[in-house]
Input
Amino acid sequence: MKTVLILMGNESSANGICISRIVKVLSADGYRVLCVAMDGEGSPVIYGAEIVRVKPPLSAKISAWRGKHPGKAAGILFKLLLMIKKVKLLFLRPTWPLIYPVFMRRYHKAAEALFKKHDIDCVFSVFTPFEALWTGHQLKKKHPGAKFIAYFLDSLSGGVVPRFFSKESTRKRGLKWERKLLANADRIVYIKASRVHHERHSAGEVYYDRMTMLGVPALAVPDLAEKQGGEAHALLDGRKLNLVYTGSIALHIRDPEYFFRIFSRLRDPDIRLTLAVPHLYRLPAPYSDDPRITVKNSLPHGQVMALLGQANILVNFGNKLPSMVPSKLFEYMAAGGPIVSTCPIENEPCIPYLTQYPLHLLLREHIPDIERDAAALKKFIHASKGRSVAFDTMRERMFENTPEALVKLIGEVIGYSHSM
Output
């Protein structure tokens, strides 16, 4: 039996949900799986994998606390703490993305302790968090017999630009850290949306021939328990036509404003829009009085999956970053329902995937025309009633976006024969 140590962040984050699906396939395929993750409220075991939880940075604890305290006083305190965080980031600009040295030491210590207890064949570091990538690099230096796979669901040198940074400085800092931390990686895996970035900026690096492109491993049939995570009458009104969006809303990445404007043009009182957001989110003032729009904050993932199964139309707010593909897109495809997506930029990263999906509508936000897109959405809603896409169809077309594809690659790196 081969043992894989997965270094990850928050289990309930989008990345964490993707990793839980990978763990499930690894376990089913005969691996022993260990995980180091941020402390949270999850089970000590994911699909049979042992989890060691590490106390997170204070800012992460504050964000989790804010999600459970929606009051005005809590909001004021949260803004104050957010201001302190921004000041801290300003002072730590020279060391970014290493900004939590105490947490990094705790994280590395927990991973090293697992090496002392177990015969580990592979360290699988998931970025984000940065600490997982750094720890994987350090473990490989100390334990060269173990394989080290660096896995980028997000891009370090081509991803989100932090406050006070320029895009160019973020890229330079990210590439500098990649040169350092990927030097001893046996394999580096990145998602397709980052391909152009790495062809431009990584092709001359010594580790480039160890880089492999895969998709986002979220195209998977959810467990029955996930599908039943919420009762239909408690989540959606089955007598209405329900549009559903799930996922975070951060305005510098995705902004729902354009879709709200389109939706407001649909006068049908029987059409509903439900937003399931994993953090505290309030509707902008112009739409807060629309009784057809509902926001559900911080639902358990099982209920989110239930929402996808109950929706008539699945909504995606397009990304402003061309290298960031939301994992929920593949959960949408696995659910099989019609998908509508805004496109705030011409090279919006979801477009190449959605064009392979038979039931999709793209709303060209980068060439805005509210009346045009409202008419297109109305037509799409009625034309797609009762239609769906079989999971096996998408699995065949997009196998690289399944957890099985990534597990197959892990087996190739460590020389393990698969049962798949």
In short: The chain has a mean pLDDT of 90. The domain at 224-397 is CATH 3.40.50.2000 (Rossmann fold).
